[in-house]
Amino acid sequence: MIKHYLKVSFRNLWKYKSFSAINILGLAIGMATCLLILQYVSFKLSYDQFHKNADNIYRVVMIVTSKEGLFNMGLSPIQLLVKQ
Questions:
Q1: How far apart are CA 37 and CA 1, in angstroms?
Q2: Which residues contact 20 (CB under 8 A, 6 or more apart)?
Q3: Which of the two ends of the chain, N or C, has the fewest CB atoms closer than 10 A to its terminal CB?
Q4: What is the pTM (predicted TM-score) of this model?
């Protein structure tokens, strides 16, 4: 039975070449995009995971007001950086 299904599938693939190529190409592009997004997300989630207390890492930002609006900058005043 499976042999029959495979034979019919290959006949249809061969008969409708352009339609089959579009579908297979779309599937390949979708799978490649999904894998790239998965790799990107896992890379972003792995930042600073080698620290003992990785869940206690925070980012200090400085909110700057200018003519264009408010900006969050990843900079901090020198007083926060110097140990006292």
A1: 38
A2: 12, 13
A3: C
A4: 0.59
Q: Domain span at residue 55?
A: 2-81
Q: What are the beta bridge partners of residue 69?
A: 66
Phi and psi, residue 71, nearest 5°: -130, 135
Q: What is the pLDDT of residues 40-72, one digit of tens each?
A: 999 988 888 888 888 888 888 888 888 888 888
Q: What are the distances in angstroms from CA 55 to CA 14, 49, 58?
A: 55, 8, 8
In which residue are the tokens 């779309």 written? 26
Beta-bridged to residue 62, according to DSSP, are 73
